[in-house]
Amino acid sequence: MDKLLIRGGRRLTGEVLISGAKNAALPELCAALLTADPVQLNNVPHLQDVVTMLTLIRNMGVSAERAVSSDVTNAVCLNASSLNTPEAPYDLVKTMRASVLALGPLLARFGRATVSLPGGCAIGSRPVDQHIKGLQAMGALIAVEHGYMIATLPPGTKRLKGAHITTDMVTVTGTENLLMAATLATGETVLENAAQEPEVVDLAEMLIKMGAKIEGHGTHRIRIQGVARLHGCTHQVVADRIETGTFLCAVAATGGEAFLRHGRADHLDAVIDKLRDAGVTVTAQSDGIRVQSPGGAALKAQSFRTTEYPGFPTDMQAQFMALNCVAQGASKITETIFENRFMHVNELVRLGAPIQIDGKVAITSGPTALSGAVVMATDLRASASLVVAGLVAEGETQVDRIYHLDRGYDQMEAKLRGIGADIERVK
């Protein structure tokens, strides 16, 4: 397995090109299953999760190829006209939770779907019961047998039917699955307690380009008027706000100045507010974000609580914790989304970070002079936090099991090297 070697202590200066968002690209690849017409997605990041999703839909009979063109960047051309196997087997689903997003589109278009219960990062319980309950409210018959969700329509029924659905919790993938399914249902569907994340909004905008009738995306209530069919479209995947936030934390911790091209400040209000309170200068510009920082020891640690968008994202908790460890003062970090999302703490402690955990709360105190060590990534965002810490630590840090990192960051080490980090990938 690959690992990263980081020799810390360098200030970061230059420009980083932010890639398309993983959490938008994955549902949008599944949205292509809703039509027999060609669909082109631009700005699709080169990530292991994207490779897995492309393999999954190809296994169903979908044509899915990366386009080579000077006119577009990172385009994927999809055609689901020959889709003949509306199934997502365990072998292709076990490493990626987002594969559950095939359930709604397959059921809506073909009236049947067999999808394995998903895998992904071991950061806590992320049940699919909200997906199932919502689809059942739309008339689906769903059985869970031998680790698979087997979904069909009642005999004599050709389409799902609109329904008023209130989920028990805010769920991003649940909102996306039900949103896609509702586009081809008969009548109106109202999704209450819907997720408001920019990736959900971007998916809705793509579906609208395909002919869907959607209102209220970006709020807690989404209305969908079902249509008989959807057509193809060309769509640009929105920039990855979590990659943007990770680079903001990296520059803040190490010090320096960088321009994050295509980064969207309006998608990171909660994170940017905390960075500014810490003493980092963050400026939104026409095509990106400029960040300037004196370095962690000159900053003030910030307390925060993770919550659903537009609050502080759980996907930025680990990276900001690494920043807090090298900043002045104590911080209280409360994780409310996933119960197992402090697994990076033990690895940060190996680098010298004094962190205490009490249930859902982590307390940091600093500034701490981190020192390089061998650490192990436990999940995607934990990997990123160890990279941020390693960039500051004295000496060499070795980050093992970076296949987690490759699931969500497009050429992270190359981008960091481009702004002055001493980092390399080794076998």
Describe this structure in words.
- Helices cover 30% and strands 25% of the residues.
- It has 427 residues and is an alpha/beta fold.
- The strands form six sheets. A four-stranded mixed sheet has the order 22-23-1-24. A four-stranded mixed sheet has the order 2-15-17-16.
- A hairpin with a 2-residue loop joins strand 16 and strand 17.
- The chain is elongated and about 70 Å long.
- The relative contact order is 0.16.
- About 1% of the residues have low confidence.
> What overall form do the CA principal axes indicate?
elongated
Strand proportion, as a percent range, falls in 25-35%
Biggest beta sheet summary: 4 strands, mixed
Number of strands: 24
Indicate the low-confidence ranges by residue numbers.
Answer: 120-125
Radius of gyration: 22 Å
List the strand order in the largest sheet.
Answer: 22-23-1-24
Average residue pLDDT: 94
Helix vs. strand class: alpha/beta
How many DSSP helices? 14
Distance between the termini: 6 Å
Please estimate the helix content: 25-40%
Write the layout of secondary structure elements.
Blueprint: E1 3-7, E2 12-17, H1 22-31, E3 38-42, H2 48-59, E4 63-66, E5 76-79, E6 87-88, H3 90-93, H4 103-110, E7 112-116, H5 129-137, E8 141-145, E9 148-152, E10 164-166, H6 172-182, E11 188-192, H7 198-209, E12 213-215, E13 221-225, E14 234-236, H8 241-254, E15 256-261, H9 269-278, E16 281-285, E17 288-293, E18 304-305, H10 317-326, E19 329-334, H11 345-350, E20 355-358, E21 361-366, E22 374-376, H12 380-392, E23 396-400, H13 403-406, H14 412-418, E24 422-426
Parallel strand pairs: 2-15, 3-14, 6-7, 10-11, 18-19, 22-23
Antiparallel strand pairs: 1-23, 1-24, 3-5, 4-5, 7-9, 8-9, 11-13, 12-13, 15-17, 16-17, 19-21, 20-21
Helix pairs in contact: 1-2, 1-7, 4-6, 5-6, 6-7, 8-10, 8-12, 10-12
